[in-house]
């Protein structure tokens, strides 16, 4: 129990440090939101209006320290203020609209990559001398070592632009109603194929190798040799004996991956104009929309820390020695 | 009776644009799809906080100054006149105007709309109240509004097209105007009925009470959200959108060639692009250096190679380009012709004569005291066409022995660098407005120093300030032109910026289902989407094929 308390204390401190960075980062970038607005207006705004606009968006908050204190307060009360880009909508609402799509994209691709990766990893390590075991893992390693953007743009170019098989943008066809209908669900699925596909392509190799390494260790254990000697069937040895034991270290890696998959979806969303957090974050940065940037970074930080905490819990549960 | 109706619609049509054919035969219906670069749409119909998305669509301006034809296009107003002393503007509204909910749109609404921006300074887009010249806006009867000014100012009227006319009945009840999202919006423009709104698409349909018979011809406008130009290009190619207003690389091949019959572009001249020079630092304090730097450039080549040939090279040294063709003083252009002519030999001679020679034998010129000349030309990261332009500029400079580097910076750095006059050389546009005097105000008025991008070059004079400020005290076009001519002479003689070319107005359109677009053959308005007034004129002319 004291282990968990110590970990909680650690995460709380990490959280405080992270949100302080969230506060500092946008302010360290040159330019402020109103300058950005002004530049975007290209002469259609009068400089005399700038102070009034600044006041409207609530950027007359006194010294940096005072701003920091009110920022920390806003984080814990979740009252993060209005977005500059989508004024006067609160950033919490903006994030609320985008978060489900990012979760769908990040978790969906993680789950698919995981299932495929673990299966392929198990199979290829058990049959590591066969054709499959020789060819598939290196090919996957090759594909996943492409810079992500290249993979995404290639998919975009071939399937969207050249073959016109799949939509190039959006979370679903913007002309149809958002309702629980077959049309809507299939549109969501259709629009998810390319962005999710690109993330799966890039992510899958990690799981293949995670699983493969763990499997190869386990396959050397006596009880596996014993099972084989007993004459048990291949799949039974592979899944029941080796696979089940090999998956333990993979399970803890999953928790970590959840947090990072959120960050990973940012590029995907930008390439495919997918209306999630990453897409909005990019525009927020360009416009120096402090409240929006802070809110999204807050979500990312929380996701990473929560996932790490879950990983800790898993460790405790899997390895009783830790809690002592 | 029927004939009367036809006559009325012809007159209305003529009021909108004398160049377009007015006809009752145009089919009603159809949806126009346009791209919006942004974060997506939210439930907000306040035209002041939606960054102009709704101006000219849901909210009709009083009038529109058409810089393409030089005419004033009356919209909600049927006339706007200055008093003889230029201190009062009397605006008369059309008769029987209605809001989209059927209630009457009166002078009280208009007066309220302008007075509202006094109490909410964030809405005072052109600073008409903060600048202190506007004394009052009053409705004197149901269709007359009087703007009273403190000082004579013939330029004041240009501000009127930027303000949104909103219904007093709704807006006077809003508690906090800046956070007011105007749910259930009531407007006076061609499209007022929001039929649906989603994060990535919004559709607004016709105003049942629009003041022009049969207009708009279209049923609806659909806005679609995109991240950037690179996503709009495929959308245009696939016919997903009808109207593009962004840079598209190699538009002939990527867009027109896909469907030559219906895919078109028309790129009339827009703002003039200059190299701004900081005359406060050496060696740019020497006019001969600035002249030589201008002569070293082959503008035609730059336009052709670096900018795909879309802009028009600008040989006018007077500070304005093709957009303001009718205002250009041809004598100034002729007198200073040698400055913009490509002549590297002459440039070298000028530099030699001024004492800038290569002292340390590194192949580049140095200052007379021996310090090497080397400077950065600032351009914003990602503005690819301009980066290529600047790249070519540095190559031309190298040919005359001047070492210059391309410096791509984040726009925020660029923004403060230009505003505070910290650059040595930077590429930037010039202000586009109803009249070139506003561009000169940006260039030279000392009141603009530190506030805007174009006044940081260090060339100013009290005489020029007075000259600029005297523009508004007359509305005699001849006297105004005389002032503009003096300003052109001043620009040319001092060369605070080196003219390069006129940027094109980016405009691509798809005529497979909707026609009536402005074009080279029918240039009834400059085709800019992001200007509510011009957009309004175009929307009123579009119809099904």
- Kindly report the spatial arrangement of strands forming the biggest sheet of chain B: 14-18-13-17-15-16
CATH architecture of the largest domain in chain A: Orthogonal Bundle
Please state the average pLDDT score of chain B.
90
Shape of chain A: globular
Q: According to CATH, what is the class of the largest domain in chain A?
A: Mainly Alpha
Computed structural class of chain A: mainly alpha
Radius of gyration computed on alpha carbons of chain A: 24 Å
Number of domains of chain B: 3
Secondary-structure blueprint:
The complex is a heterodimer of chains A (about 325) and B (about 550).
Chain A: H1 2-28, H2 33-41, H3 50-56, H4 64-77, H5 91-126, H6 131-144, H7 148-162, H8 182-219, H9 222-229, H10 234-271, H11 277-286, H12 290-318
Helix pairs in contact in A: 1-12, 5-6, 5-8, 5-10, 5-12, 6-8, 7-8, 8-10, 9-10, 10-11, 10-12, 11-12
Chain B: H1 2-16, E1 31-37, E2 63-66, E3 71-74, E4 77-82, E5 88-93, H2 107-119, E6 134-141, E7 144-149, H3 168-171, E8 191-197, E9 201-206, E10 220-226, H4 229-237, E11 243-244, H5 251-254, E12 263-265, E13 269-277, H6 287-295, H7 299-306, E14 312-313, H8 330-335, H9 337-340, H10 344-353, E15 374-380, H11 384-399, E16 403-409, H12 411-419, E17 425-428, H13 437-444, H14 462-470, H15 477-494, E18 497-504, E19 508-510, E20 514-515, H16 532-541, E21 543-544
Parallel strand pairs in B: 1-10, 15-16, 15-17
Antiparallel strand pairs in B: 2-3, 4-5, 5-7, 6-7, 8-9, 9-10, 11-19, 12-19, 13-17, 13-18, 14-18, 20-21
Structure description:
The complex is a heterodimer of chains A (324) and B (545). Chain A has 324 residues and is an all-alpha fold. Chain A folds into two domains: 1-77, no CATH class; 91-322, MetI-like (MetI-like fold). Chain A is 76% helix and 0% strand. Chain A is built from twelve helices and no strands. Chain A has helices at 2-28, 33-41, 50-56, 64-77, 91-126, 131-144, 148-162, 182-219, 222-229, 234-271, 277-286, 290-318. Chain A is globular, with a radius of gyration of 24 Å. Chain B is an alpha+beta fold. Chain B folds into three domains: 61-179, Dipeptide-binding Protein, Domain 1 (Dipeptide-binding Protein, domain 1, Alpha-Beta Complex), CATH 3.90.76; 191-262 and 506-544, D-Maltodextrin-Binding Protein, domain 2 (3-Layer(aba) Sandwich), CATH 3.40.190.10; 269-504, Dipeptide-binding Protein, domain 3, CATH 3.10.105.10. Chain B has helices at 2-16, 107-119, 168-171, 229-237, 251-254, 287-295, 299-306, 330-335, 337-340, 344-353, 384-399, 411-419, 437-444, 462-470, 477-494, 532-541, and strands at 31-37, 63-66, 71-74, 77-82, 88-93, 134-141, 144-149, 191-197, 201-206, 220-226, 243-244, 263-265, 269-277, 312-313, 374-380, 403-409, 425-428, 497-504, 508-510, 514-515, 543-544. Chain B has a six-stranded mixed beta sheet. Chain B has a four-stranded mixed beta sheet with strand order 1-10-9-8. Chain B has a four-stranded antiparallel beta sheet with strand order 4-5-7-6, covered by helices on one side. In chain B, strand 2 (63-66) and strand 3 (71-74) form a beta hairpin. The longest helix of chain B has 18 residues, at 477-494. The interface between A and B is large, with 50 and 52 residues. Chain A: The chain crosses the membrane at residues 7-25, 101-123, 135-159, 192-209, 246-272, 292-318. Chain A: Its main location: membrane. Chain A: Keywords: Membrane, Transmembrane, Transmembrane helix, Transport.
